[in-house]
Design a protein that fits this description.
Elements lengths: L1 H14 L18 E5 L10 H15 L2 E5 L7 H4 L4 E5 L8 H12 L3 E5 L10 H7 L3 E3 L9 E7 L13 E6 L3 E2 L8 E6 L23 E8 L2 E6 L11 H15 L9
Parallel strand pairs: 1-2, 1-3, 3-4, 4-11
Antiparallel strand pairs: 5-8, 6-7, 6-9, 9-10, 10-11
Protein name: Type 1 glutamine amidotransferase
Pfam families: ThuA
GO molecular function, one term: transferase activity
């Protein structure tokens, strides 16, 4: 059974374009780090959160990094955050930290910590400008009034020289709830993927008749150095079943490794 389990893990990794661990020695390899997955919500709650937490824990088990998960904002203390190389904000929404917890997270990033935001992490803490800079852009809306909420569209992968993009095809067709953002962050971050608006209807729900999309350069995932730390964000991950997509998991794994500082963080502009 152990042999069968190793073969199944190997098949998933190969499908994702990732290397297969050679054996027990891989546990002490360069990928080892610690991640805290934070998924508290104070507004809309995505029912994909349990699947996202489970998927990241499975990645940790396969790639030998520790994963803790919480929805308790009391975890945001200086002492506790020092235990982690990256804090993953998984579809958080609304105002989830108080002032003291916010200051602790700012100090964590300034000491060289890592941030990884997934999907609704950009729909979080609108009254905390520092966080808005960290995530890169705030959520504005998505299709769903004059156009379907979930659509298959083509992602353009802009480079393959990061851990988050190396496993991906140059053009990647997938279904998603495609976010429009309040601002385009491309002048302050390194954009990793863009969605091609000619391949779907990007009109959002926030204006009568549908708000516009974001034009020919519509970012979906990006990374940046920020205030002494490392930040990665992807807008993908609305549905639970998306967290069984090997390519999305490879993208997230690469982003986590980059933000944790164990993979090359070539995210300057």
């Amino acid at each position: 059974m152990k042999t069968l389990g190793r073969l199944l893990v190997a098949a998933v990794l190969v499908a994702a374009g990732l290397s297969v661990p050679a054996g027990p020695a891989a546990a002490t390899g360069h990928s080892r780090f610690s991640a805290l997955v934070f998924s508290k919500t104070a507004a809309f709650r995505h029912d994909s959160i349990p699947a996202g937490v489970a998927a990241i824990k499975q990645l940790g088990a396969r790639h030998h990094f520790r994963v803790d998960a919480t929805e308790d904002a009391a975890a945001f203390t200086d002492k506790n955050l020092r235990r982690y190389d990256v804090v993953v904000w998984l579809s958080t929404t609304g105002d989830v930290l108080d002032d003291t917890q916010q200051r602790a997270f700012e100090r964590y990033i300034r000491r060289g910590g890592g941030y990884a935001g997934i999907h609704a992490a950009s729909d979080t803490e609108y009254d905390w400008p520092w966080y808005g800079g960290l995530v890169g852009a705030y959520f504005r809306d998505h299709p769903g009034s004059v156009s379907p909420q979930f659509q298959v569209a083509t992602l353009k992968v802009l480079n393959h020289d990061t851990a988050a993009t190396k496993p991906l095809p140059r053009r990647w067709d997938r279904e998603e709830e495609w976010y429009n953002f309040r601002t385009n962050p491309r002048h302050t971050v390194r954009v990793l993927t863009e969605v091609d608006e000619s391949t779907y209807d990007p009109r959002g729900y926030s204006q009568p008749g549908g708000s516009p999309g974001m034009g020919p350069h519509h970012p979906i995932s990006w990374c940046q150095p920020y205030d002494g730390g490392r930040a990665f964000y992807t807008a993908m991950g609305h549905k639970a079943e998306y967290f069984s997509d090997p390519l999305l998991l490879a993208h997230i794994l690469g982003g986590l490794r980059m933000a944790a500082g164990v993979a090359r963080f070539n995210c300057g502009r």
